[in-house]
């Protein structure tokens, strides 16, 4: 993909206001999530999960906790990014096992990696862990938006929700997860006037500072 193609994709995507009734094929959704998993992540830990919701009954249950934003109900799939609040030591240990399965390094290297990661993360309390995991989830969201555009899948990233209520509806506490953000996906409706409007963004002078 060259710069011109990338620019075209970034201009094509927008935060959809209204989705059509079209459903995205499951294999495309699976590929979207798979490629989102290639996103940058601190230590490579990916301390979040992506919950995929296609059942209308669950979407209806979440709608009252979404400030009436109909997009939460009217979409092909609703994706929920949730912070992994399980013990960080166990997340590191799982990662090291995955690392061993994919690399052929000396055991001392693995031990040093594990020790270094645990040492860097051990001071986090619950609030700090949620904040850090949320940052990683936002990095993944950026990847999802670009991948989705390349697949002509529309997305509307949203943080305007009652996250605690989402946790309750989805039963996330028992899974050591906490809602971070949501991303309804689908195909834009032909009546959505925002699809063909130009983007309003800061100029380079306002966006950029050189020091």
From TrEMBL:
<protein>
    <recommendedName>
        <fullName>Nitroreductase domain-containing protein</fullName>
    </recommendedName>
</protein>
<feature type="domain" description="Nitroreductase">
    <location>
        <begin position="11"/>
        <end position="186"/>
    </location>
</feature>
<dbReference type="InterPro" id="IPR029479">
    <property type="entry name" value="Nitroreductase"/>
</dbReference>
<dbReference type="InterPro" id="IPR000415">
    <property type="entry name" value="Nitroreductase-like"/>
</dbReference>
<keyword id="KW-0560">Oxidoreductase</keyword>
<comment type="similarity">
    <text>Belongs to the nitroreductase family.</text>
</comment>
<keyword id="KW-0288">FMN</keyword>
<keyword id="KW-0285">Flavoprotein</keyword>
<dbReference type="Pfam" id="PF00881">
    <property type="entry name" value="Nitroreductase"/>
</dbReference>
